[in-house]
Structure formats: structure tokens, C-alpha cells
Amino acid sequence: MSALIGTGGVLIGVGIGLVGPLVSARIQARGASEQASATVAAAEHAARSQYRAVMDEQARQARRNVYSGFLEAVRELEQGIRTRPHQETHAAVRALGEALAQVEIEGPDEVQEAALTVRRELSAWQFARAVADRLAQEVAALDNPDPAWSEWQRTTARELSAAISAAEGVIADARSQGAFEEWQQWRLLLVGNSALAPSRGRELRERFSGVTWPSPEFTARFDAALTRVRDAAMAARGGGVLDTASPTLLDALVRSGRVLPEGGAGISGWRPLDEAMQRFRLAARQALHEMPEL
């Protein structure tokens, strides 16, 4: 019996001796498995992050290309408005429409709205350029009367041409007198059948705005020059010598100091377009900076 007990003790001792290495081996195996899993997970995360980064950059580059294409189309049409007749800008208008469609697809809304504003301002500028060209052609024709014109029409054309030349000189002098921007505020009162701006209104404007007007003598000369153009233009239009309405003619004179020549050489830009372009660029940069992850 004692021998069996001794043998049993030996076996128990051996068993206990084996349990320790087995447990240790299992713990080591579990640790290795967990480390392997962590390594695989880290590799998968790195791969996903790299893939996402590549896709983000591709999406950002695609959006950047769309925005750049729109800006290029705008520049092309802007150059056409500056340098080419209205009839020769159809291709640039079509290209801008296609570029705008890409912006509408790409988004976001803020950039799309800014792009639509740019197109509206370009259209307005293009229309203004067409009106300016037509007006310049009509004014140039005053010195080359139609053979079918009557003597009265010829006289009317000469008077309008002389009135325009005189007004150009007075407006050039007005620019050197200061407060010319304030004078422009009154131009709508000098067209059509409106009377000249009353002196009382000028006095109030000077009092509250702090603007010092030129001398009454020069102001009277300025007003008289525009009034002469207004009356001559109304007579010329009524007699079939001029198609453009007198407000348009006077507006061109007061804004530019002269009737713009054919070819648009006097058109330097369109301020609302510049402001719209700035808004588009800011919106585009913001959209590229805040590009959401895929």
C-alpha cells in the first residue's frame, strides 16, 4: 500500500510538473495569437487609411479640375467680351455652360451658387458690351450720314455729334474737379423728360455727406452739356437718326467720359463680375479644404 501511495505521489508530482509548462505554453500561444491579430488589424487599418487617403486625394483632384475648368471658361469668355464682337463669343458661352454643369454636379451648394452668380454677371457684362458696340456704331454713323437722310436728319445728326464731343470735354474736366462719383448719382435726373437736379438737393447732399461740389459755374456747365446731349439724342431718335435711347447714351458718357469705341477697347472690366469671382474662389478653396472623407 505504501508503495502504491509512493507511486501515486510520484505521478501526481509529475502531473503537477507538466501542468505548469502546458499552461505557460497555452498563455504564450494565446499571446502570440493576440499579437498576430493585432498586427493583422493594424495592417488592415493602415491599408484602409492609405486607400481612403488615395481616394480622398483623387476626389479632391477631380473637384479641383472641375473648378479650374470653370475658371478657365470664365477667363475665355471674359477675354472674348473685352476683345471680340458679340457674335464671336458663342463658342465661349457654350464652353462656360458646360463647365458650369460640371460644377453643379460636383458641388457643394455654396460653390454652385457662386458659379451661377459669376455666369449671371458675365451675361450682364456681355449684354452691356453689345449695347456699347451698337451705340458706338450709331455715334460713328452720325459723321457718315445715310444718303437717304433728309436735310433735317443730317442737321440733327450733326448737332448730336457736336453735343457728344462737347460733353466728353466737359466730363473730362469734371473728373479733375473732384466729387465726380457724387455727380454720377444725379445722372438719371438728367435724362428723358426729367428736370435737372434742383440746387436745393445738391446743398442737402453736400451738408449731410460732407462732399464739396465744384463751383456753381462749373456745375452749370456740366449740367448744360448733358442736357444738350439729352435733347439732341431725343430729337435724333424721334427723327430716325438714332436707335439708342438717350438714357443709355448719357449713362455711357457719364460712366466712361466718352462713348465707347467699337471693339470694346474702352471696356476695362465689370465690377460685379470681379466681386462674384472672388466669392467663387473663396467658396472653392473652402470646399477643397473641407472635403469629407469617403
Distinctive features:
single chain; 294 residues; mainly alpha; 9 helices; 77% helix; elongated
Polypeptide structure, described:
The model is unreliable at 191-198 (pLDDT under 50). By secondary structure, the protein is mainly α. Helix 1 (2-83) runs antiparallel to helix 2 (90-106). The radius of gyration is 40 Å and the shape is elongated. The chain is built from nine helices and no strands. 77% of the residues lie in helices and 0% in strands. It has helices at residues 2-83, 90-106, 109-142, 151-175, 180-184, 199-209, 216-238, 246-256, 271-289.
A few lines on this structure:
The chain contains nine helices and no strands.
Write the layout of secondary structure elements.
Blueprint: H1 2-83, H2 90-106, H3 109-142, H4 151-175, H5 180-184, H6 199-209, H7 216-238, H8 246-256, H9 271-289
Helix pairs in contact: 1-2, 1-3, 2-3, 3-9, 4-7, 7-8
> What integer is the average pLDDT?
76
Beta strand count? 0
- Globally, the shape reads elongated
Describe the sheet with the most strands. none
Beta fraction:
under 5%
